[in-house]
């Protein structure tokens, strides 16, 4: 056996050993919401008291199912659901005043 042949066999054996080692990686499937332009999704529990008080006063019986915040404009986008009614999208500022969305 020549030195070149022995070197080739040694190199090939090392590569085969390296290729035999595999690692199983568990992948968790996560749901990603598409961002709403200018708004970042937040937990409903993160809404300020002024906003939750306005919802209780003005939208009695409605539940916030989703919430987003535009930190630059200090505005919140809410999905409100009241029993027996369709979901409603509403916008409110940090002071608890209902506002119209601005493009």
From TrEMBL:
State what protein this is by name.
PepSY domain-containing protein
Organism of origin is: Leeuwenhoekiella aequorea
Domain of life here?
A: Bacteria
């Amino acid at each position: 056996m020549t030195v070149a042949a022995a070197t080739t066999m040694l190199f090939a054996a090392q590569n085969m050993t390296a290729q035999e080692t595999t690692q199983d990686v568990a992948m968790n499937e996560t749901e990603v919401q598409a961002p709403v332009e200018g708004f970042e999704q937040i937990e409903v529990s993160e809404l300020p008291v002024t906003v939750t008080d306005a919802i209780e006063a003005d939208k009695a019986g409605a539940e916030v199912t989703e919430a987003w915040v535009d930190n630059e404009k200090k505005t919140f986008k809410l999905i409100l659901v009241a029993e027996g009614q369709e979901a409603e999208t509403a916008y409110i500022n940090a002071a608890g005043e209902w506002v119209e969305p601005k493009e």
